[in-house]
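S.,

Sequence below, as promised.
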Amino acid sequence: MDALSMQATQGTTPFQALPPEAPLTMPVQDLHAAPDCEGRPRIPVTSPRTVVFRRLAVLGSAFALTAYGAWRTHKVLDANGVSTLGLIMLVLFVALFMWIALAFTSALAGFVSLITRGGLGLGITRSGPLPELRSRTALLLPTYNEPPHRVMAGLKAIYQSLRETGQMEAFDLFILSDTTNPDVWVEEEAAFLALREQTGGHENIFYRRRHNNAERKAGNVGEWVRRFGGAYEQMVTLDADSVMSGETLVRMAGAMERHPTVGLIQTLPVIVGGTTLFARMQQFAGRVYGPIIAHGIAWWHGSEGNYWGHNAIIRTRAFAGQAGLPHVPGRPPFGGHILSHDFVEAALMRRGGWAIHMVPALDGSYEESPPSLTDVAIRDRRWCQGNLQHVKVLPTKGLHWISRMHMIVGIGAYVTSPLWLVFLLTGILISLQAHFERPEYFGDTKTLYPHWPHVDPVQAKYVFIGTMAILLAPKLLAYVALLFDRVTCKGCGGAIRAAGSVLVETLIGGLIAPIAMLIQTSGVMSILSGHDSGWNTQRRDDGGFPLMVVVQQYAKFTLFGLVLGIGAWVVSPSLFFWMTPVLLGLVFSIPLVALTSSRAVGQNFRKAGLLLVPEETYPPDVLKKLEHAQESDEAPQLPDDALRALRADTSLLAAHRAMLPPARKAGDPINAERLVGLVKVEEASTLAAAERALSPKEKAAVLGCSEGVDAILRLPE
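The prediction came back faster than expected:
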């Protein structure tokens, strides 16, 4: 007799995968109507008093730098007049230079904030006694076809860390599955049961799978809020690769209790666990450059911060009252449900009078990086569509101008790639015009001096040097800030190795940049032409690809680089040498991607003491717990196929039955996959025949109803 059956016969508490429901109304917001702030002040009480000065300093300096750069560029292009190509290039330069100027001035503000050791904000402390919590917080981990063993290992580490704080009773953990692969779904259920047994968390670890995963992650979280949100003052959103320490979670929940007008607190997740060279570069860059960037934006964003979709704590009532997302008009890729929901949810909560804060100095928040440029490209394609979709959200009535700026910056993160490409090609055309076109010295108008179209090489050199200085300055500032933090510096291998790591990351990152530019340009063009990004599972293991796959995917970049290089050489050898950094990255894109996707290469850099981060040199306790859970906890030994797994484990079968949705009632929507799947199972002579006949969607639909499970069990082997 299985454990669940014994519960029923012995009269003990029956198996419950979920707590009692506590519904919370979450109305869909009208983007054209003024929000209901319920009497909250227009300026949150937690807003810094000097925030206006801070914004003037950062934005004003960025505009001043851009104006100066535009003037110098005008002198480069044509000191004696204006040409069409020169005007186009000047406009592009202003748009692109403003982007890097703002990044520089914000990083400069972050540098000052970081080295002066400003407070964490909102009364949060890194050390000292933990606050005694009075409210309950739910940890939400949405998952979509992710490896269940890794997901449960992360949750186990969080659970154990929370238990050590002595305040586990203030937290519940929810696994919110949107998994569509039926084999992964049943494996998730088995891993969930094993997690409960390993931790003893039968009363505060819960699992729910949506059988209709409408609106993706936003719909997943929204459905939880509407069913269970009324029982929790706060919720912490996690990704499948997120890990947070118990102390961090308790301090965040305590800050929410002390500040009832704060709607959201966003941490700075530190990237960990990288093994490939690409992941280790991302990890090092995030750990060393990330803090001055995050401190900078936190310094001048104030209570109008942003939300990154995970590793953040949210006031459930604020989210339910203001963040119900409508569908935007039109067809995909721009219409439909909102993909990059996090930016919009933060903007709507702030519109409703809730403060949104980032606290980047708070330790204990971690995530992982995609292992290769190819994996980043797949993820970026979806993010690109979501960010471009924000064009339709920008006119929302009542948004704070900083919230609109978040969306504009998000759009610009992708639009700048095609602009850089056009800027590059325009520069070639200007050189080509000067090389082949016979100048009209006097034209129709009689002048004392001829008009000589030209590019001033001396001025061009100054503009190039100035632009590169502003572009690279945040990295230099981050390195200097690192030297002020002895513990972090030692964790990065010391000052010399850290400097070498900065150099390696800058050089390899500079070579990858033109490849990323073309990838993002291709994504923007694809979306603008009407192609939807879909919803793909993110790969989180090592990033190696067979060489022929890399050749097939990146040969076009090599070819483009060769054509561009030949064209530049024909126009002018000096132009060719100016473009060498771009050309090298494109021409050698195949070996570059293969090299950076290699785990062996990444580990060789680690052995050499390069691209180190403190979290691997001196792992914090919660990451040790994660590593131990991944290595020591074996996944339940079940058949890979969901049908056979349920037949092989009666306890899993009983739990699966208990977690099925209610039976369909007359008038409910008809599931075509279920109908077809049930017919196929009824007609199958053996279990193997049913496995061959069912498509993945039909298999999931059959396993999602009691009659389907009964039909599977009746089949002979």
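The longest strand covers residues 137-143.

Coffee later?
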